[in-house]
Write a structure and sequence with these properties.
heterodimer; A: 333 residues; alpha/beta; Rossmann fold; six-stranded parallel beta sheet; 10 helices; 12 strands; 44% helix; B: 323 residues; mainly alpha; ABC transporter involved in vitamin B12 uptake, BtuC; 4 strands; 2% strand; globular
Chain lengths: 333, 323
């Protein structure tokens, strides 16, 4: 019996060796997603693509984790920090408190947090000027609408999502000042990101009231808005990732937030030793936000519309147009 | 006129939102009338939503989806039955166990099968229950009032929505007009008497669980193949619990339960409509407040207007023959 036990232990040790070997590489990046899941066709998927890009370019594997609830944020961060990960990239404003707590405890681990701002010597904060990208899709919405009514559906009602709304409304009004706006928020808790039924019901209500373009900044719930657009024969605008392909012909464009760029850059810099803590803002000039053009919406965005959008982009970069922002856009909820 | 259009739109929306609630509430009603508390409605709904979306995505047929949704939900109902009938376990614990298990299992399986981070692929129109336009709906469109109500409110819902409303009289008929229904109600009030009469309490309760499973399966399928177009983790978003509240609010009777579901759905539609609207005297209501509305209403109604509520007497109590 005693022998058997020893043999089992020996086998277990042997079985675990390959994974310890894999950990033995020099650089160990970790990616932590926000609630919603890796392949949400939106925010988290963009982060995943960024890490994949880094992995294929450098040949270094990354580890990742998908939390199911907010309580897992801090647990996951601590677990990876304890295992001496070199760089932990956490995406989502929800991580702000958890990253601050864990980064103070583990001053030797590098943290990159996206969408939140944390002022610690071992934390790099990357935020986006979502209002600038939203300004452009707002212009597109105003040029595409026939009814003169445009809609907005936000996920959870937090300052970050209000920033999308502010930019969108300003962009639409930049084109036409006679527009009507209808705005909805799916909810006030994180479950608002995962309720496509409610989002679709809100979208149907907006379409029935005469809206013909809706911008959804609602993560996976936004898929409900895009489906409602198809059911109602109207247009939706996607968010974060390029969602034009979800229902081709019914997605006017997507507000791209290049989370992939931020993630792959952070990992590259940490690998090359050029990683710096502090706050970085990615706006239109840095290519951090954009609107999506591909074969799925080529017929929806005319050359003339495109011209006006590019013109506005140049003006924003040159500082001739200032896009409004909201206070505390990247503070935790 | 705009007011009328608003009411019409809200009611239309309420009918869609209410459908899964009605089915789930009827499921809970059948189970509790037979003496089994079914707090696992939420979990069964989610499991059915996942099974329906997966089957519909693979086969391309919503009917295959509906069938597998029902199948999975019935299996979970039987599991709950086994724990609470044969093993005389705590029914709340068993129900919660189902909820927690499904919440984790469904996204995990979805990830393993479809590699889309706990979602199933988006369903095409052919793989969903689409909106049905009732006969003459287009013709009557321009008739004032009647036409508007008929073609906007009654027409243009999915098969499962019509099925949900049809199930109310069906369940009512089974419970109050058939011998089986009488026995089912008796087993929830006084199982000893049923046993003395030589009828199997165990069998009756299992039958009730199967009915509950079927109804809950339809409800979950409605979420992912009619209202939505695919499974997303936690997409039931508390509807199972809301259905349970509607059933209690409806005093364990089919028609009042239907009305309760419609009320909840209407308030839910209303809160979406009230967001960002400036009301006379009050001004604009903050989103946080409008979203609270359905829950505040529930508490107010339950506390003030419903009166005495009597649950089936043997509800939640395992039957022990040899006592």
């Amino acid at each position: 019996m005693k022998y058997l036990f020893v043999r089992v232990v020996a086998l277990l040790v042997l079985a675990s060796t390959p994974s310890t070997l894999a950990f033995a590489q020099d650089f160990k990046p970790v990616l932590l997603y926000d609630i919603g899941g890796k392949f949400d066709k939106s925010f988290n998927e963009a982060a995943f693509r960024g890490a994949e890009k880094f992995a294929t370019e450098s040949g270094i594997d990354f580890r990742d984790f998908e939390p199911n609830s907010e309580t897992q944020y801090e647990q996951a961060l601590k677990r990876f920090a304890r295992r001496k990960a070199d760089l932990i990239v956490a995406v989502g404003v929800g991580y702000s408190v958890a990253v601050r707590n864990v980064a103070e405890q583990y001053p030797n681990v590098k943290f990159t947090v996206i969408d939140a701002i944390i002022d610690l010597p071992n934390v790099q904060s990357i935020t986006f000027k979502e209002n600038e990208g939203s300004f452009l899709v707002g212009m597109a919405a105003a040029m595409a609408t026939k009814s003169g009514k445009v809609g907005f559906i936000g996920g959870m009602d937090i300052p970050l999502i209000r920033r999308f709304q502010v930019g969108y409304v300003q962009g639409a009004q930049f084109v036409r000042d006679d527009l009507d706006f209808i705005e909805n928020y799916v909810g006030t808790t994180p479950s608002a990101w995962n309720d496509p039924i409610k989002a679709s019901e809100m979208a149907k209500s907006q379409y029935a009231r005469g809206v013909d373009v809706i911008f959804s900044a609602a993560g996976p719930s936004g898929l409900g808005v895009i489906n409602a657009a198809k059911d109602s024969g109207a247009l939706a605008i996607g968010v974060d990732s390029n969602q034009n392909h979800v229902q081709p012909g019914f997605v006017l464009t997507s507000m791209l937030k290049r989370v992939d760029l931020a993630v792959s850059q952070a990992m590259q810099q940490a690998n090359a030793g050029t990683w710096k803590s502090g706050h970085q803002v990615l706006g239109l000039p840095e290519g951090g936000v954009d609107y999506a053009m591909d074969e799925h919406n080529a017929t929806l965005i005319t050359a003339e519309m495109r011209e006006r959008l590019e013109d506005a982009r140049a003006k924003i970069i040159a500082g001739e147009i200032t896009v409004d922002d909201v206070d505390g856009g990247n503070s935790g909820h | 006129m705009e007011f009328l259009t608003d009411i019409l739109l809200l009611s239309d929306s309420a009918i869609r939102i209410a459908a899964p609630l009605i089915l789930a509430a009827l499921a809970g009603l059948c189970a509790e009338r037979a003496g089994i508390v079914d707090i696992g409605l939420e979990g069964k709904m989610l499991a059915a939503a996942f099974a329906a979306a997966s089957a519909a995505a693979i086969t391309g047929s919503p009917w295959a989806g509906l069938l597998s949704g029902i199948l999975v939900s019935v299996m979970l109902a039987l599991l709950h039955g086994y724990v609470s009938i044969n093993q005389r376990g705590n029914q709340i614990v068993s129900g919660m166990a189902i909820n927690i298990m499904v919440a984790g299992l469904a996204p995990t399986l979805a990830n393993a099968w479809f590699s889309r981070g706990g979602q199933t692929p988006l369903l095409d129109s052919e793989a969903r229950f689409n909106e049905i336009t009732l006969p003459l709906a287009d013709l009557l469109q321009d008739v004032p009032l009647v036409g508007a109500v008929y073609s906007n409110l009654l027409s243009g819902h999915s098969f499962l929505t019509y099925l949900a409303f049809l199930m109310v009289p069906v369940v009512g008929w089974i419970l109050y007009r058939t011998r089986f229904g009488l026995r089912l109600r008796a087993v929830g009030e006084n199982p000893e008497a049923v046993d003395t009469a030589g009828i199997s309490v165990t069998l009756l309760r299992y039958q009730a669980m199967i009915i509950a499973g079927i109804l809950c399966g339809m409800s979950g399928s409605a979420l992912s193949t009619a209202l939505g177009a695919g499974f997303i983790r936690d997409m039931s978003a508390g509807k199972g619990f809301l259905a349970l509240a509607a059933m209690i609010f409806g005093k364990w009777k089919p028609v009042p339960t239907l009305l309760a579901c419609l009320l909840f759905a209407f308030v839910d539609a209303l809160q979406g409509r009230l967001q960002g609207v400036s009301l006379p005297l009050i001004g604009e209501i903050p989103v946080q407040f409008t979203i609270m509305l359905p829950y505040v209403l529930t508490v107010v109604i339950l506390a003030g207007f419903v009166g005495k509520m009597e649950a089936p007497k043997a509800s939640g109590i395992p039957y022990e023959k040899d006592r």
